[in-house]
């Protein structure tokens, strides 16, 4: 996965979304494509203007791990009804929106604006900033509530984040993290909100010792409980990696230890964040994880921001060529136990190869969009 930056009452964008910082400004599907989540029609190439990226620095989100074959899952007999509104919130600050506003004459602008900037995306909180995080979260959730729409927020400050890789950082220790989570929860409010809890924090936990892993999972279970208690209409999803990583059984075992099976802390799992695996593969994988995890209340959400062509055959994860936008963000998927297709990674923001992690590249965005 990887990062980005922008401003939300001092917000940025990470891993392809709006990331709130403490500083200033597919493959063929198993079912017919629901009308609520269309795929864009390809466009002809347009001569590129010289790209310019907004300057900002935000910690990168985790790198995708080596691909593994994933097991298929039979469809669960119990279809889960999504209880949240079908409308997602588009926060008015992101790097792609900044670029669109600053480049009215660029020939790529109409495509990037209509197919990326106008779509709702997640808002990342990738810095450990206890003094400001409550206000910044509240700015996003109150903005969504004012419009009657559902924001997607991503707390991303777990200690030992990314095992010291591209997206290293986070809180100094779990005690500080627990305090940050309390302050984050205080900004959730009473409206509907989807929480993507710490990408890679579960799937990537193998780098920790057994004791460190147990402590992390205890903090994640606590975080889910705190969010559910603070935000009565909050829906919390835990990290399930993606279909090319762990087996469903292994991932479910990790998730269970992190509290993801409990209705007191979890509404289900998320997968494919900042990755490229096809939607059909993720649906099958997520259902297999949910079946292994147990709990009929659980559902799954899938990051479809860049998975229109599926994952590269060579396993490349860093700004690979030939990728396209996937399903449009929606909370009405038409798929049992699949609660949403979300754009957690904002298309056009680099994984670290087309620029610094989180840097917006209009040429990359245009290639994905057309």
Automatic annotation (TrEMBL):
Family as reported in the entry's similarity comment: Belongs to the glycosyl hydrolase family 6.
Signal sequence extent: 1-20
Keywords: Carbohydrate metabolism, Cellulose degradation, Glycosidase, Hydrolase, Polysaccharide degradation, Signal
EC number, as in UniProt: 3.2.1.-
One Pfam family hit: Glyco_hydro_6
Region annotation Disordered: where it falls in the sequence: 24-87
Composition bias, Pro residues: 35-45
Organism: Streptomyces variabilis
PANTHER family on file: 1,4-BETA-D-GLUCAN CELLOBIOHYDROLASE C-RELATED (PTHR34876:SF4), PTHR34876
Record SUPFAM superfamilies: Glycosyl hydrolases family 6, cellulases (SSF51989)
InterPro entries in the record: Beta_cellobiohydrolase, Beta_cellobiohydrolase_sf
Protein name: Glucanase
Protein origin, superkingdom: Bacteria
Enzyme class per UniProt: hydrolase
Low complexity: bias regions: 46-77
């Amino acid at each position: 996965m990887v990062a980005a930056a922008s401003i939300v009452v001092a917000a940025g964008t990470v891993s392809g979304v709006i990331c709130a910082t403490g500083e200033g400004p597919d493959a063929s599907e198993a079912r017919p494509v629901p009308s609520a989540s269309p795929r864009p029609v390809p466009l002809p190439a347009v001569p590129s203007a010289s790209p310019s990226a907004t300057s900002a620095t935000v910690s990168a989100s985790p790198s995708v791990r080596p691909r593994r074959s994933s097991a298929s899952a039979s469809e669960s007999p119990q279809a889960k009804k999504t209880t949240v509104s079908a409308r997602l919130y588009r926060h008015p600050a992101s790097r792609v929106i900044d670029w669109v506003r600053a480049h009215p004459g660029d020939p790529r602008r109409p495509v990037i604006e209509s197919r990326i900037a106008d779509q709702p995306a997640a808002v990342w909180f990738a810095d450990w900033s206890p003094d400001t995080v409550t206000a910044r979260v509240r700015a996003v959730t109150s903005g969504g509530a004012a419009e009657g729409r559902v924001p997607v927020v991503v707390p991303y400050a777990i200690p030992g984040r990314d095992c010291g890789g591209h997206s290293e950082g986070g809180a100094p220790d779990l005690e500080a993290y627990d305090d940050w989570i309390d302050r984050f929860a205080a900004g959730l409010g009473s409206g509907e909100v989807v929480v993507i809890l710490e990408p890679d924090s579960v799937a990537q936990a193998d780098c920790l010792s057994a004791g460190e892993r147990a402590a992390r999972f205890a903090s994640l279970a606590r975080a889910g409980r705190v969010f559910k208690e603070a935000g009565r209409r909050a829906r919390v999803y835990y990290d399930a990696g993606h279909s090319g990583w762990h087996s469903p059984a292994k991932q479910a075992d990790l998730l269970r230890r992190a509290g993801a099976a409990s209705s007191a802390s979890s509404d289900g799992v998320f997968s494919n964040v900042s990755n490229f695996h096809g939607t059909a593969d993720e649906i099958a994988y997520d259902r297999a994880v949910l079946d292994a995890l147990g709990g009929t209340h659980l559902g799954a959400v899938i990051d479809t921001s860049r998975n229109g062509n599926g994952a590269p055959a060579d396993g490349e994860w860093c700004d690979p060529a030939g990728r396209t936008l996937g399903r449009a963000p929606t909370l009405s998927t038409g798929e049992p136990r699949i609660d949403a297709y979300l754009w957690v990674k904002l298309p056009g923001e680099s994984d670290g190869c087309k620029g610094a992690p989180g840097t917006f590249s209009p040429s990359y965005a245009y290639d994905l969009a057309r």
